Amino acid sequence: MKKSLVILGLICTQFINAQKKLKSIDTLDLNKIRAEDVSKKYKNGFDVEVITLKDGTITQKGSDFIIGSPSNPENINNNVYNGVKVSETLVNYTFLMVGKYSLMGAMSATYFSSSFSQTEIVVESIKVFRTKKTIQIVVDFTKKDGTNTGIGKYGSILNLEEAILKGEIINPNRPMTRIQAIAKLKKAKDLLEIEMMSQQEYDKLKSELSPIIKGGKG
User: Fold this and answer.
1) How far is CA 208 from CA 184, 204, 214, in A?
2) Which member of 59, 119, 129, 202 lies 3.0 to 4.6 Å from 136 by CB, making a disulfide possible if both were Cys?
């Protein structure tokens, strides 16, 4: 009997602590929080109005993104049954799911096809999940032109930072990397040599890109 009361007390305590966890917050900086802190302070899948990603860019409701290219261009069904190769499948995105995000929906997700590449989208909501020892940002979005995504008006990004890293999502506000800066300066040098850019324009661009090239990462 005493043991049962102890167990009941622990369950009640866990329930009360769970109720104290926040369902939403205004701002979150991923550079200032650990996955362990997320599970202690917030309910899994809590809403955030404004979030600062690890690259320093700020994302909020109304932020614009562009759908890039699928990160799995070799997404081909190579299975063979009874000596017969199964027909090839469409190249689909890894992180872009049709419809609003839900745990049940993710288990039987329909992913966008490569035909959505270069589509402009707008952030509608941001949710934060803890997956094992990592923080995962899930975004629901709509198309900027207001048309449907297929089934309805919504789509979702299952892991925003990974989608950006893999090139499935292009963040126009993301800081330029060192590699991008070098490529841009080389292109400008070529334009200068064929007299399609003035020396003054080139020098100005070089001055802007030099700090990124000298101190940038990636």
Assistant:
1) 11, 6, 11
2) 129
Is residue 63 predicted with pLDDT exceeding 90? yes
Q: What is the pLDDT of residues 168-184, one digit of tens each?
A: 999 988 878 888 889 89
- For 139-156, the pLDDT digits (tens) are 999 999 999 987 789 999
CA distance linking residue 119 with residue 84, whole number of Å: 37
Residue 10, classified by CB atoms within 10 Å of its CB into exposed (0-12), middle (13-18) or buried (19+), is exposed
* Cβ atoms of 186 and 205 closer than 8 Å: no
Amino acid at 107: M
First to last CA, the chain: 62
How do 169-170 and 64-67 pair as beta strands? antiparallel
Phi, psi (deg, nearest 5) at residue 78? -100, 15
Tokens found for residue 182: 């070098």
Q: How far apart are CA 21 and CA 124, in angstroms?
A: 23
Residue type, 213: I
User: Tokens 């929080």 identify what position?
Assistant: 33
Q: How far is CA 105 from CA 98, 110, 156, 203, in A?
A: 9, 9, 11, 52
Distance CA 151, CA 109 (A): 12
pLDDT, residue 180, reads 82
Beta bridge partners of 48: 25
Task: Give the integer Cα–Cα distance in Å for 61 and 47.
Answer: 11
